[in-house]
């Protein structure tokens, strides 16, 4: 299966919230919880006013910080490109929430299989289960204005470039938000204005501490653990031999 | 949960056949010239039975049989011997008869043919029908410019196949989609495709919890049904033949609920 991407074209979004409702229904979420939030900003002065809005959810980074910092390895990459949380493995430590450069991973109270309230990381899964069965994510199939489109990765990137060229006349600052600092994302945005005007960081990046932790410290730690274990085993064997010798000698 | 009841193996076989039919359609398109004039056709009868000559040349049909046979042999090696015996003995006269009988979907003829030649009962008709499809697709292409102006009740306006599949596309419009010739034509959203009844109190949907992309449209007047696929929810574009196959579970449900011909 190939990788997929979602394009959110904010120039087409009318803020109807139907994506949010579809997401809540799909994920069986209560009305006060959602993986999708809305950013609404009023710009300009009368009579030249504009209401800038867009829906926002997990961006599914190629180089996801949440995946790097999770001590339980509960966060992983799906073959579709989505970054998904294994609720069985999650312990609700909040590392993902605190390190997400976009503030999209949330640790919330959920119910486990026995019905107990537990803290677990909760975020958009890009409808991974549906996509694996060849079905479009709930928000994309609900969006009436086609502001949310989903498809094969390259095709969506092409579509975004094409759409950018179309809206440049109307929005000179229009840009595609696909931060390179996190290796690109599987949810990309066509923004009408600069990212800062949507509360998005234009230079969002994976922190060096997360890279050092996941890509160097952990493998090195495992190596060192291996070396230490070998030393302990080696010590035990030599000690035993040594003691055996002593015991033998003592026995005589 | 995927409600599909067709085995992965059979789906792969059908996909391979569909790919081959696409290749054949492109190949035959260059040599087969189906010039159809709307003015010479009656808009209330399907196009296929109105044609003065056969849209299927014998030589090309034989080539199509050979190509479909090679796909079947590759996918199902145990059929190889039976298939080569079948195709080796096909005379020119048989080919012409096969074209005629497969166009009219004459199962009885192929059953007799299979008995006479000691072949599996399903094989001759399956091969004949699959080999015919590229020509049906070409006919549908030739009809595309005017097919929406046809008003044929109950069957495909191109090949005359009874309705069984429709699709709701991006803008919510309903199209009927023929699994035999791949013709698609626009249809009123609130109307039974079999009897034309448009009273909303007589039309219902049956949805299946596990299936979020397809549902049944049933009519209480004629007791018939149509499978409706919401194509905007599908990640890839699929042919009508494949959609028909992947929604067979809906046929079971409809027939269990007492809908369909002869119910």
TrEMBL record, chain A:
A molecular function (GO) held by this record is:
4 iron, 4 sulfur cluster binding
InterPro entries given in the database record: 4Fe4S_Fe-S-bd, 4Fe4S_Fe_S_CS, FDH_Electron_Transfer_Unit, Formate_DH_Fe-S_su
Q: Name the UniProt key words of this record, in alphabetical order.
A: 4Fe-4S, Iron, Iron-sulfur, Metal-binding, Repeat
The record lists [4Fe-4S] cluster 4 as bound by 70, 90, 93, 96
> What range(s) does the 4Fe-4S ferredoxin-type domain occupy?
4-34, 49-80, 81-110
Mainly localized where? other
Q: How cofactor binds (record note)? A: Binds 4 [4Fe-4S] clusters per subunit.
Gene Ontology cellular component terms for the protein in this record:
cell envelope
Q: Which cofactor does it need?
A: [4Fe-4S] cluster
**Localisation:** Cell envelope
Pfam families, per the entry: Fer4_11
Residues that coordinate or bind [4Fe-4S] cluster 1: 13, 16, 19, 143
Tell me which SUPFAM superfamilies the record gives: 4Fe-4S ferredoxins
Q: Which residues bind [4Fe-4S] cluster 2?
A: 23, 124, 127, 139
| One of the protein's GO biological processes | cellular respiration
Name the positions where [4Fe-4S] cluster 3 binds. Answer: 58, 61, 66, 100
What name is this protein filed under? Formate dehydrogenase iron-sulfur subunit
Automatic annotation (TrEMBL), chain B:
> Which Pfam family is an annotated match for this chain, by its short name?
FdhE_C
Keywords associated with the record: Cytoplasm
Q: Name one GO cellular component term.
A: cytosol
Looking up InterPro entries in the UniProt record yields: FdhE-like_sf, FdhE_C, FdhE_central, Formate_DH_accessory
List, for all copies, the residue spans of the domain called FdhE central: 155-189
> In Gene Ontology terms, what is a biological process of this protein?
protein maturation
* Superkingdom in the source lineage: Bacteria
**Domain FdhE C-terminal, residue spans:** 191-260
Q: Name it.
A: FdhE protein
